[in-house]
Design a protein that fits this description.
- It is a single chain.
- By secondary structure, the protein is of the alpha/beta class.
- The chain has 17 helices and 17 strands.
- The longest helix has 18 residues.
- It is globular, with a radius of gyration of 22 Å.
- The structure holds pyridoxal-5'-phosphate.
- Pyridoxal-5'-phosphate (PLP) binds next to helix 6.
- The site of pyridoxal-5'-phosphate (PLP) has 14 residues, from helix 6.
Length: about 450
């Protein structure tokens, strides 16, 4: 059935009553995040439903999900077991506070997450997003030093090109200029390590580059500048995803660990993207054999189905807080929706799927085929670099003169409309990060489609 709403100047061919019902009649009110709103509202990319590896648009087209949503639907979309768990939980317990009260699934999920995490990373604090997870970890770091009588340790060290969400803590330690420059003075006392990417030394590397471990030594320089007694924590992504898939150079994270140990500085891995199989393990910490003091997670914990994030901390950090009168709160921090019952139910069902379908191992096994397929695009005109790690690829395109980001934007737009694929863009980089259920045939399909996109926009 075809329909045209007079309030909507976008013509869509609707295929059923169902899609007609889903079609919005006013695009003005919703202010889309991280989106050019005017361009979007002139030609919206609207999604009606999803299943496994695919989205279905409101005008009835099928779109292959090359990005696991926003790096989050690791188990694929609308998996029956996760949907059923959410439905059942909604009937049973819609909400209970996590301040002073709790529900059993919160403990169950925390134990399951702790069991997956390396070493003594055994205590889990829940929140609702990656940004909240980052701000929580930074606050725990500051408070930890405080309760141990080292309250002068207030400096936080991030990294250029790092993305740690959009809270004030996250943008302060983050290293993306556009995410910082509009928002005032940010947190005081923050310093940054240099980014680990150098095209000259690393172009077209599969996995972790050989070059770059020495950049961790910059932490020694920062420590010498400020003195270790003023530094609380270092936060890095094991693989910087949002600035274009920048895997850690070989040996880099171990070096950071050693320097932090030398100076009593906490090391935080922001694993909001890398946790839950993206790099072939439950956590990237395992892939690199490096144990941080805290791990932030979100996204894949529920395969994107319900918002949830969290911080896993080493037992000793938690224990440092467990002092003083027992009726007094030990950490003055938390969210109304920490450990929300729907999120916990979705999280448990998701972890079951990861385990039962061996999805982390699957990602590990698919990694060589994924990397080979990505590199088939190496010689296309305008391709400056391709990087892969786990089930992730970043493809740098040459920018159009005077129009940074336009080429990748056109590729994303064309991908959705003409090729039936969702790709993620950052500047003129295309990022590909499919659900871990992707088949080898679909890997081929992804890179065939992306190859056509690149040719079309060059
Ligand atoms: C490493 C990292 N940290 C934090 C975040 C923020 O997560 P959220 O968007 O859930 O706040 C992201 C999001 O992509 C991320 O990649």
């Amino acid at each position: 059935m075809a329909a045209k709403n007079p309030r909507d100047d976008v013509v869509m061919t609707l295929t059923s009553d169902e899609t007609a019902a889903r079609r919005p009649n006013d695009l003005e009110s919703f202010w889309l995040p991280f989106t050019p709103n005017r361009a979007f509202k002139r030609a919206p990319r609207l999604i009606a439903r999803a299943k496994d590896m695919h989205y279905f648009t409101t005008d009835g087209r099928v779109v292959l999900d090359g990005t696991a949503g926003l790096w989050c639907t690791n188990a694929g979309h609308n998996r029956d077991a996760i949907v059923a768990a959410i439905q059942q939980q909604a009937e049973e317990l819609d909400y209970s506070p996590a301040f002073q009260f709790a529900h059993p699934k919160a403990f169950e999920l925390a134990s399951r997450v702790a069991a997956l995490a390396p070493a003594d990373l055994d205590r889990v604090f829940f929140c609702n997003s990656g940004s909240e997870a980052v701000d929580t970890a930074l606050k725990i770091a500051l408070a930890y030093h405080n309760v141990r009588g080292q309250g002068a340790r207030t400096r936080l060290i991030g990294r250029e090109r790092g993305y740690h969400g959009v809270g004030f803590g996250g943008i302060s330690v983050g290293g993306i200029v556009t995410n910082r420059k509009f928002f005032g003075t940010l947190l005081a006392g923050v310093d940054h390590l240099p980014a680990t990417y150098s095209r000259g030394h690393q172009a077209f590397t599969k996995g972790e580059p050989e070059w770059g471990a020495h950049l961790a030594d910059e932490l020694e320089r920062i420590v010498a500048l400020h003195d270790a007694s003023t530094i609380a924590a270092v936060i890095v992504e094991p693989m910087a995803g949002s600035t274009g898939v920048l895997p850690a150079p070989k040996g880099y994270l171990a070096k950071l660990r050693a320097i932090c140990d030398r100076h009593g500085i906490l090391l935080i891995f922001d694993e909001v993207i890398t946790a839950f199989g993206r790099l072939g393990h439950a956590f990237a910490a395992e892939r690199y054999g490096v144990t941080p003091d805290m791990i932030t997670f979100a996204k894949g914990i529920t395969s994107g189905a319900v918002p949830m994030g969290g911080v896993i901390v080493r037992e000793g950090i938690y224990d440092a807080f467990m002092q003083g009168p027992e009726h007094v709160v030990e950490l003055f921090h938390g969210y109304t929706y920490s450990a929300h019952p729907l999120a916990c139910a979705a999280g448990l069902a998701t972890l079951d799927l990861y385990r039962d379908e061996k999805l982390f191992e699957r990602a590990r096994k698919l990694e060589p085929a994924w990397a080979d397929a990505a590199m088939t695009l190496k010689d296309l005109p305008g391709v400056l670099d391709i990087r892969t790690v786990g089930l992730t690829a970043g493809i740098d395109l040459a920018s159009r003169p005077g129009a940074y980001g336009l080429r990748a934007y056109e590729a994303m737009e064309r991908g959705f409309r003409d090729e039936g694929i969702m790709v993620r863009i950052t500047g003129d980089t295309l990022a590909l990060t499919p659900p871990l259920i992707v088949s080898e045939a679909q890997i081929g399909e992804i890179f065939d489609k992306v190859g056509r996109l690149i040719r079309a926009v060059i």
